[in-house]
Amino acid sequence: MEEWKRFTPTAIEDMKRYSDDTNEHREWMSYVYDVGGKYELGKASYGGLSKIEVSPEKKEREDLKKPGFNGAKRKWTIHGHPLKDGKIYTGRQYFSSTDICREYVRCRDNDEYVAQFLVYPHKQKDTTTGKEVMHNRCRVLVFPNRETVVRAMRDSNPNTDAMAITPQSGQNQSVKMEDGSTTLRNESGVDWFAFQEALGRLGFMGIVDIEGPSQGARQFHSESLREGKTLAGMAIVGLFGWYVVSRVFKVPTFMNAESVQVVEGFGAECSGFHN
Questions:
Q1: How does pLDDT run across 177-214, given as a tens digit for each residue?
Q2: What string of DSSP letters covers 212-236?
């Protein structure tokens, strides 16, 4: 919640707008800027169903032309995954190896704090009307420090050398199986699904329903809710319990970082985003 609550109402509306415009046919990405202690989004760039290519330097120069962005500091990346063939595909609701491998190495080697954000469409039932609706959700993943990410890697991938992973060796590639199907593998043998789950159990990944209760949303379970949650994992949610109590008698009239629902959730793989 500490990262999410820094987004301004305008930034959150941008997330929804970019996703609503593209969620059936292409990805989008934007840089996240710290403007006076609050997060704003730069200009959105668009790609295909599973790939985006941009020049970071050129894109940043364009972003800083935006009013109020003078002297702004680029912080993180946020991107949106579309539906696959117009349908919900759980794998696209999570960070891919491309999204997180470089950030893992960056945090591990430099003891550097990194945050990432992924917006995706999620189908659910509106408990007010009983109808199925498509909500935008944002998955937040935090690499807090070297000690935590290495611990998560060793816990989740005990047969992998956590210190030997590189952006090249950890990048998933599509591999054809004997039966003609394909799977994702990398030279380091990292299971990035399991790694994200380990970070989630330590309390460093969560899901936010961007639409918020003002749009009729109610409490619901994550698409990947697991049994046997740890205390750290429960802490992600516990925030939601506090949130419900604090909002029972007051319906928000505008969208901001505190008028959303927090939903716990742990990771898996998607076919993802490319810087």
A1: 888 787 889 999 999 988 988 999 999 998 888 876 55
A2: -GGGT------TT--SS--HHHHHH
